[in-house]
Structures are given as C-alpha cells and as structure tokens.
Amino acid sequence: MEIRLIGEVRVLSEGRGIGPVSPTRQLLVAALAAEHGRTVSGEELIRRVWSEQELDHARRQIHQHLRKLRRELEAGRPEAGEIVQAHAGGWRITLDPEQVDEYRFQVLHGRVLAAGDARERARLAEQALAEWAGDVTGAPPVPLAGLPGTWAEGQRRAMLEDYKQVRLAWLEAHLALGPEEWIVSDALRLAKSFPFDDGVQATLIRALHRLNGAPAAIEAWERYRDTLRQAYDTEPGPELHGLYQDIRAHTHALAPVTRKELRVEQEEPVPDADEAGVSAENKGVLATGAYGVAIGTQWNVSGSHARIQHADRDIRIEQPADER
Q: Tens digits of per-residue pLDDT, 41-95?
C-alpha cells in the first residue's frame, strides 16, 4: 500500500486508488501521513482538518469521521482500514514512512543537499523530482490538491518550496557538468511556476550567460527587474544584484553566487501581517507595510536591493555591500 500527498491525496493498493473521496477524509489521511508514523493528538488533528468555527462540532464528530475513513478504505481492501490506528491519546498511520511519497521525496531532498559531486547531485535530484511527476521538467502537481484550510495551505507552500529547491539543484548540477540548451528551456518553465522568485531567475540568468553570453543574461535580468517594479514596486534582491554587476563587469564566475548574509537571532517569533501593522492585498502571499513588499517569507525593501527573509524564529537580512 502507498499514500500519495503530491497531487490529489490518495491511498493506493497495488497501484489502484481505494480512497478517500471526501475532502474531510482526505485531510485526515494527509494530516496523519505527514507525521511519518508519529502520533497526532486528537486536538491537533481536529485543528488541522477543521476551521475555527467548526471545532466544537468536530470534537463531537471526529471519531465518527475516522470510523467512516476506515470503512471506506476497507471497502477497497479488507485490511486497509488498519493503517489508521488510535494510539496514546491520538491517531497515527501505521504504514512504513517509505510508503508515503512526500517522505521519500524529503529523504532524497536531504541527500541532494549533502551531495558534493555534481553528477551525483543531478542523479539524486532527478530521483526526487520523479516523485512529483514522470516528466521531471513538467509543471509540478499541486500537493494536497483541492484541500481547504490553513494547515493544508501551509503544507502546500512548504512542499512546493522544497520542490523548487530540488529542481534548482538539479539544474545547477547539470549546468556545472556542461551547459546545454534544455537547461535554459527548463529554467524558463520553472520561472512560470515561480514567477517572482530570485533563486529561479538567478539560475536562468546563469544558464543564459553560459549558453548565449552576457547580452542575453542582462536582457533577462532587466526584464525581471521591470516586472518586479511594475507588479510590486521593488527591485531584484542582492544575489541577482551582484550577479548582474558581475556579468556587466565580465567577471562572473560560473559557480552559483554566494549570498552575503547577516543572521539575526530574535527573542520573539516574527510578527504576522496583523501584528506588524501591515495591510494585506488580495494577491495571495503578499503584504505591504513599513518594510516594503512581502512575497511569501521575503520582505522586499522599497527603493533598495535589500531583502529581509524570515521563517519561524529567525530573520536573515540580505543587502549588497554598496548599500550598507
């Protein structure tokens, strides 16, 4: 048996989907499978699956929903319902973590980051990307597809971010092994999925520089800069700023640019949009405020090439040396 979280949430038996069908029961499977065999408390499971307005009702109905989930799986395979078990005041999936596609991807992701050899890094990255789609150069399927809620959205963003990192590592590894035209084509396709990501643009520009020379790379950088200005009134970040300067000066080494980073440990978590007094716009993962423009976990400081990256209890400020 296998559980797939990449794309539509499904439980498979010998390659055949046996459920679940309803979004609520798909969320139950996802919320448990994402823990890779660890127990999820009843209260935590409820908060992952239901909204704040539904919590009281969910507390009364959680056991009924889990029974329905087990019966649905058993209809497809008699023993399948046994993979969902009550344990230590909560619930868990009893399958080996290797039977969950997201877990296999995360294991390979770690190996990609640890690989020192470009050829080995490319091989591992291709294996990891194969968990997302048969064609590693295609657009990624949406994880937990169609499932609502704050928890599901957070999982989607995190999984897509990890996917992007592996795909970039795959492209950079092949670029190090020798530039080929397909690398530019794939970087362009990736840029369509992540249109405002500096890391994706940096890889695209490096590939263009290797294959087509400085004019093509500079044109791509200026096009991206103009897009950022028009969409968010901000500039490319310090990595792209430095890359552009190096190409203009004809001194760009073909290895990935090293970011200048200042790490600031903070006592309290990074405030969310409401706590920071910023105004959220109806553009997905975006807010505007005193720092400038926020896209995801990145604040783009207006009128500057500086970036403020934040996640959990850590802040990373990136700023070109000539702006310090």
A: 999 999 999 999 999 999 999 999 999 999 999 999 999 999 999 988 899 999 9
Give the containing element (helix H, strand E) for 294: strand 292-295
Q: Confirm if 216 and 196 have CB atoms less than 8 A apart.
A: no
pLDDT per position as a tens digit, 98-121: 999 999 999 999 999 999 999 999
Amino acid type, 255 = A
* CB contact at 8 A, 140 and 159: no
Could you give the angle at which helices 42-49 and 23-33 cross, rounded to 10 degrees? 130
Which candidate, 277, 316, 226, 269, places its Cα nearest to that of 288? 277
Q: Tell me how far CA of residue 115 lies from CA of 102, 225, 253, 311, in angstroms.
A: 20, 33, 21, 25
**Residue 46 CA neighbour count, 13 Å, CB half:** 17
Query: Under a CB-based contact definition with an 8 Å cutoff, are residues 25 and 19 in contact?
Result: yes
Answer whether residue 284 shows pLDDT above 80. no
Query: 2-97 sits in which CATH class?
Result: mainly alpha
- Position 267 scores a pLDDT of 37
Query: Can you tell me the distance from the alpha carbon of 297 to that of 149, in angstroms, rounded to the nearest whole number?
Result: 19
Strand order in the sheet with 16-17: 2-4, 10-13, 16-17
Does the pTM of the predicted model rise above 0.70? yes
Residue ranges matching CATH 1.10.10.10 in the chain: 2-97
Task: List Cα–Cα distances, 150 to 27, 48, 52, 216, in angstroms.
Answer: 11, 8, 10, 41
The structure tokens listed for 275 are 């706590």
Rg (CA), the chain: 22
Separation between Cα atoms, residue 78 and residue 163, nearest integer Å:
35
